[in-house]
Amino acid sequence: MGAAAGVGTLAGFTPTKFAIGQQAKVRVGTLLPYSGTYARLGEAITNAMQMRFAQSKEMIGSREIELIKLDSEAAPPKATENTSKLINSEKVDFLVGPVHSGVAMAMAKIAREEGVMTIIPNAGADQITGPLCAPNIFRSSFSNWQPGYPMGRVLGAEGKKRVVLCYWNYGAGQQSAQGFKDGFAESGGEIIKEIGVPFPEVEFQSVLSEIASLKPDAVYTFFAGGGAVKFVKDWAAAGLKDSGIELTGSGFLTEGVTEAQGAAAEGLRTTLHYADTLDNDVNNVFRRNYKEMWGSEADVYAVQGYDAAEMIRVALEATDGDTGAKDDMIKAIENTVYDSPRGPFKLSAAHNPVQNFYLRKVVNGVNEVQSIAVEALSDPAKGCRLG
Ligand code: BEZ
């Protein structure tokens, strides 16, 4: 998918519901990666948003949606300029993004100052639904702490004693590791080593040698997208798959990438707020529609995009499409309680999803649900003063 962010004919003009006798389109700007190691994540989010909007065209305050896509390149140094472009030049009514926590930190600062309605469809930076929370910023995804905590609980309960943590060394990896440590803490086990790899590096040979020599019971990882493909394949190629060391991670390790990982992914256990095989009506219909529309399998990123679009739909429906009625839109999103493909979905007072976390296992290339690892898990949201 190409990223397009050209300034259109509406530059300098704020579209409103009542513009020139007809209803202007609602402008939804996406700041997502359409290139680089996270490109497939950005594409899945965008595809599912488009699907949700297409399904609900007549229901959103009778206004159509126009998507304005901008490639974030998962590059924090470009985030401020890109966010300003969407808000000030493209004059978007809603901002949807990003995937990368570092981009999110810069984006959220501006979104907060400008008061633009913002939905984060992936990036888990804990601060955004913690000390930096804001009335106009919502998340349809997770906080980084959330997927780590259940895996710590699972391995702790199974009696794993010596664990290595290995992650891309930026906010997302560090916070995911902290979630794991919090979940593992009560088990009496020990984190024997933390290995950080600079993002987006995918040179894992020395890391794998170090893990092999440490001989832990298990490794907890945070990698996603192209990096996750490479790590899992390198793990198997290094002979670690049959070494007795269990490779685990947040579910991003195997999410949307099992086809590319092939046999190397078989048997891997991870925790996440979604699994391919969740057998509820909403998920079954969602997966069927997504496959029909895009020709590929849906994944958690698609679910998060779908639910971001659903939040926008709820806000517009509540105000009959009046994007100036921000307080009413905020209230409507805050009160959203609905059946998502991931299962029951509601937001905490800090605007982060309260959701089930599933223990999954890759079987025949599919992330199969094994059990609910932690039910209705809320982020600690330390320092948030909303609600
Ligand atoms: C993050 O940077 O927050 C992130 C990126 C990919 C997957 C999950 C989290």
TrEMBL record:
<protein>
    <submittedName>
        <fullName>ABC transporter substrate-binding protein</fullName>
    </submittedName>
</protein>
<keyword id="KW-0732">Signal</keyword>
<dbReference type="InterPro" id="IPR028081">
    <property type="entry name" value="Leu-bd"/>
</dbReference>
<dbReference type="InterPro" id="IPR028082">
    <property type="entry name" value="Peripla_BP_I"/>
</dbReference>
<feature type="domain" description="Leucine-binding protein">
    <location>
        <begin position="25"/>
        <end position="364"/>
    </location>
</feature>
<comment type="similarity">
    <text>Belongs to the leucine-binding protein family.</text>
</comment>
<dbReference type="GO" id="GO:0006865">
    <property type="term" value="P:amino acid transport"/>
</dbReference>
<keyword id="KW-0813">Transport</keyword>
<dbReference type="Pfam" id="PF13458">
    <property type="entry name" value="Peripla_BP_6"/>
</dbReference>
<keyword id="KW-0029">Amino-acid transport</keyword>
<dbReference type="InterPro" id="IPR051010">
    <property type="entry name" value="BCAA_transport"/>
</dbReference>
